[in-house]
Write a structure and sequence with these properties.
about 150 residues; 4 helices
């Protein structure tokens, strides 16, 4: 059972981190190669990322939570705290920032100061999420090699 939990956690965490990295690198490339297509393509990319990251975040939090309640040191709780914080940033982005950005994009308000401010907040949240998840990657081996106390 422990093995299945770890495989699930690694898969969910890896997909979440990889999805963020892909979007944060692909969106700027859209604007560099096709400025006409880029706004709509990037919008779709971010909307799909948000659904994807909510699913992978939920799985990561649940599985890290299962691991954290088992005996075995503080590394498991640090991992849980990391995925919880990243999930909080994902929730803020998807519930408070992206809907407003998308509404402004559809209304042709992409050159306004408010749009640019929200876009900056969105990028900061996504980058913070990426950094936190990458940091979790340094904790995962410590948790994986922790003694199997109470397993």
């Amino acid at each position: 059972m422990r093995y299945l939990i770890w495989v699930g956690l690694l898969l969910a965490w890896g997909l979440w981190l990889g999805g963020l990295a892909m979007v944060l690198t692909a969106a700027p490339m859209y604007f560099a190669t096709d400025r006409e297509l880029a706004p709509r393509a990037a919008s779709l990319l971010f909307l799909h990322l948000e659904r994807f990251q909510i699913i992978t975040a939920a799985c990561s939090v649940i599985l890290a939570g299962i691991m954290a309640v088992r005996p075995g040191g503080t590394a498991r709780r640090v991992l849980l705290a990391g995925v919880l914080l990243a999930a909080l940033l994902a929730a803020i982005s998807s519930q408070a920032i992206t809907p407003r950005i998308e509404q402004m994009r559809q209304q042709g308000q992409t050159q306004t100061p408010e749009f640019k401010r929200l876009h900056g907040i969105s990028m900061s949240l996504l980058l913070g999420e990426l950094i936190i998840l990458a940091g979790c990657g340094f904790v995962i081996p410590k948790v994986a090699h922790a003694p199997r106390v109470g397993s």
